[in-house]
Specification:
Elements: E1 3-4, E2 8-14, H1 19-26, H2 30-42, E3 47-50, H3 55-58, H4 60-73, E4 78-81, H5 85-94, E5 106-110, E6 127-131, E7 134-137, E8 140-143, H6 147-165, E9 172-175, H7 188-201, E10 209-213, H8 231-243, E11 248-253, E12 260-261, H9 267-275, H10 280-288
Helix pairs in contact: 2-4, 4-5, 6-7, 8-9, 9-10
Length: 293
């Protein structure tokens, strides 16, 4: 019998990447945006991610209007999803902690080479989403591919936040960047899973949250697995079944989607475990086993 995960959901739907949400923004439909916020809150979201797209750079007034409108109808803290320091400053200035039960907002996101956002951690207080997928080496941003690189970046940056800024570790959300399996010939999924184990076992990192968006993992795969189950959703659940015991505790996702622990003998979970052991052409063959009996 399946069992629901006790994980937090950062509601992702206030984002023009969703066609229905883009229409709300295009039409400046404030009641519609508020209804979407309420729907996510009622479905159990713990935070609401807010992204209005490129317009945030050219129309800070609209950004402020959206934030205030959302806070009129929900009491959840918000996550502001913009790489721009100027946009984040507008978001933080217009966010009212009192309307979120005193909870701080989240700045989404910082990286080692995009650290300027932390200059705002003086005028304002906030939590952060920290990207572990990129590091700075000799002044150059480089993508992380191995578990040690991902873990090393997460550890270095999280402890910098704690030691240099006094940020509590439970205000740090490490984004583990879950990648699609369709062309994962370099073992990126395996590296991510192993990095989660390393972070979860590090006593100096106790308290940090680990999170990620799971929607990419089943990208371009057929809708059904070989056993007839919903392949994409079961892949998301397979990832969580493996990683939640090691401290992966937040998902950037759709709150009403629902996530459940898979039984050890579930076809997709067993196939995913096998896939994680493969690289190169063997990984591509392993992917086909998800949907071919």
């Amino acid at each position: 019998m399946s069992k629901a995960f006790d994980i937090g959901i950062i509601g992702e739907r206030i984002n023009p990447g969703f066609k229905s949400t883009r229409a709300l923004f295009d039409n400046e439909d404030i009641p519609g945006i508020q209804a979407l916020a309420v729907k996510q809150a009622q479905a159990g979201a713990r935070y609401l991610n807010v992204n209005i797209g490129a317009r945030a750079l050219t129309d800070p007034g609209w950004m402020a209007t959206v934030i205030r409108a959302i806070q009129e109808v929900v009491t959840l803290p918000l996550s502001f999803d913009f790489p721009s320091k100027a946009v984040q400053a507008v978001c933080l200035a217009n966010y009212d902690p009192a309307k979120a039960g005193g909870e701080l907002p989240i700045v989404n996101s910082i990286t080692e080479h995009r650290w300027d956002l932390m200059e705002l951690y003086g005028p304002y207080r906030f939590k952060v989403i920290l990207m572990a997928s990129e590091r700075v080496e000799d002044g150059v941003a480089k993508g992380n591919k191995t578990a040690d690189e991902i873990y090393g970046t997460a550890r270095r940056a999280a402890l910098r936040l704690k030691n240099e800024y006094g940020m509590p570790l439970d205000h740090v959300f490490i984004d583990m960047s879950v990648s699609a399996i369709i062309a994962d010939t370099e073992g990126l999924n395996r590296s991510t899973v192993e990095a989660i184990r390393l972070i979860g076992a590090d006593p100096e990192l106790q308290g940090v949250h680990m999170m990620g968006g799971l929607s990419n993992i089943g990208q371009q795969l057929p809708p059904k697995a070989a056993d007839g189950s919903d392949l994409k959703h079961c892949l998301e659940n397979a990832f969580l079944t493996i990683t939640v015991p090691h401290g992966f505790d937040y998902v950037l996702g759709t709150p009403w989607r629902g996530y459940e622990r898979l039984a050890d003998d579930h076809y997709v979970l067993a196939t995913y475990r096998s896939f994680l052991e493969q690289t190169g052409s063997n990984a591509l063959r392993a992917v086909r086993k998800f949907y071919r009996a």
